[in-house]
Each structure stands twice: as C-alpha cells, then as structure tokens.
Amino acid sequence: MKQIRRARRSGLLLAGLLGLAGTVAGCGGTEEPPPAAGDPAPPQVVATGSAAAEPSPTPAAAVDPCALVSQQEAEQLAGTRLEDPQPVRETCTYVGPVGGPTAQVEVFVGDGAKKFLDIERDLGHELRPLAGVGDEAYASHEAVFVNRSGVWVSVRLVRLNDPAENRAPLERVARTVAGRL
C-alpha cells in the first residue's frame, strides 16, 4: 500500500514538473530563435523624410517645467531656501534644505498635471475656480491647476503650516504660470 501511494505521489510530482516545464517553455514562444553566427543580419527599415516616422511632439512636451516656476519663485512660495531644481521628464521638483524647514514645490506639465486634478476631483477635495487665469484654472489647499492652449500644469506646495496661508501665493504662481504657457 505504501508503495502505491509513493508511486502515485511520484507520478503526480513528475506530471506537475512536466506541466511546469511546458508552461515555462511556452513563455515567449512567439520569439524567433537568435540567428546563427554565420547568418546575415536581417535588413533594417529606415524611414527618411516621412512624417509617419516620428510622431509630432505634444504641446506639453515642448514646455520646460522648471522654466514655468523659477527657483526664486519656488522659494517665495515655500517661504524658505530650496535646493536646486530636479527635473525629471515632465516634472520639476524643488526640495527644502536637509536641516529644514519642511518644504517642497512640484511642477507637473501635461497628462500628469491633468491626472492630478482628476484625482483631486475624485477624492472630493475642494477646488476653487480661478477667474482670468489661462483657459481654465483651479486651486485646492495645496495646489493650483492651469490649462492654457490645451496644456495642463499643476504646481503643488508642501509645507507644514495652515493651508489658508498658501492661498494667495499659490494663486500668484498660477497667474505666473499661465502667462508663461
């Protein structure tokens, strides 16, 4: 009886391993095998002068987020000295000094800025429309959102203070950003 159970377990284990090996071998099965050392390289297709070869940049791609809010403007907004800007793709971040106080200014351009606004709306956060700023603009307790000519920009302020103190400075930076778009 023990031998039958042992044989059954061994058979099940072997079947499981073979099934696993088949699954692993099947992953990426659409790839072609690498060419042999003596095979010529496949021909390369190069488009020249074709509009379809390169997608046209979006308006947001042409906007430098660090140029929308200067370091001096970010420092005025944060109320403290900030480190040099850290640009990453469509963002620019100014962080406070290591020794404090806690402060950070983030500038987002394009889809990320619009997504940030959508999340604020989904969370039910208070958004005040800003009249006369760009084509469309809103302010929350910690950020402003500006749309001009189809390009969205958001500027977010992180400070450990009463958010009401940040209202006027955030609205000023929104007007500055709209003027630079």
Fold blueprint:
Elements: H1 2-26, H2 65-68, H3 71-78, E1 86-88, E2 91-95, E3 103-109, H4 111-122, E4 128-129, E5 136-139, E6 143-148, E7 151-159, H5 167-180
Antiparallel strand pairs: 1-2, 2-3, 3-7, 4-5, 5-6, 6-7
Estimate the strand proportion: 15-25%
Strand order of the largest sheet: 1-2-3-7-6-5-4
Number of helices: 5
**How do the SSEs run, as a string of H and E?**
HHHEEEHEEEEH
End-to-end CA span: 82 Å
**CATH class categorisation of the domain at 59-180:** Alpha Beta
Q: Please give the share of residues in helix.
A: 25-40%
List low-confidence stretches.
2-57
Radius of gyration: 28 Å
Tag the structure with descriptive keywords.
single chain, 181 residues, alpha+beta, disordered N terminus
Structure, described:
With 181 residues, this protein is α+β, with helices and mostly antiparallel strands. The chain has a domain at 59-180: Protein Transport Mog1p, Chain A. The protein contains five helices and seven strands, in the order H-H-H-E-E-E-H-E-E-E-E-H. It has helices at 2-26, 65-68, 71-78, 111-122, 167-180; strands spanning 86-88, 91-95, 103-109, 128-129, 136-139, 143-148, 151-159. A hairpin with a 6-residue loop joins strand 4 and strand 5 (136-139). The model is unreliable at 2-57 (pLDDT under 50).
Brief summary:
The chain has helices at 2-26, 65-68, 71-78, 111-122, 167-180, and strands spanning 86-88, 91-95, 103-109, 128-129, 136-139, 143-148, 151-159.
